[in-house]
Amino acid sequence: MPFSTRIAVRSYELDALGHLNQAVYHSYAEVARVEAFIAAGVSWDDLVATGVGPVMLASQINFRRELRGGEKVDVTCELKFGDGKTFVVDQRILKVDGTLSAEISSVIGLMDLSARKLLEDPRAVLEKAGLDLSGLSA
């Protein structure tokens, strides 16, 4: 099972039609990514303190079912590593009853903040920083 965190849809996050504003889906995904890293032992701030910063390179969202004020959702977070300088974070936003509301796939890299260049082998960098990937990666 991938990491998951529960978020309540707040009234001020709704658009004129009473649906969750499309930009907020990305915010929910960011909340889950940050909380997943903290749960696995390393926060974004911990990484930045070592001179490494996570950078979003691409993000795609597919909307499946509307969300309305007062609903609660579970936002998952699963990291997928391959070769190269980036990794993919796949996320699902699910209503409490399991209905899929949105799928988000993001490409993320880890930047050396001094050199301003992406680091090779982000999995190894994260593991060296103390991130326990056992509950986050496929």
UniProtKB/TrEMBL annotation:
* Pfam families, A to Z: 4HBT_2
Under InterPro entries, the record lists:
4-hydroxybenzoyl-CoA_TE (IPR050563), HotDog_dom_sf (IPR029069)
Query: What name has this protein been given in UniProt?
Result: Acyl-CoA thioester hydrolase
Per UniProt, the keywords (alphabetical) are: Hydrolase
User: What is the superkingdom listed in this entry's lineage?
Assistant: Bacteria
Show the GO MF annotations: fatty acyl-CoA hydrolase activity
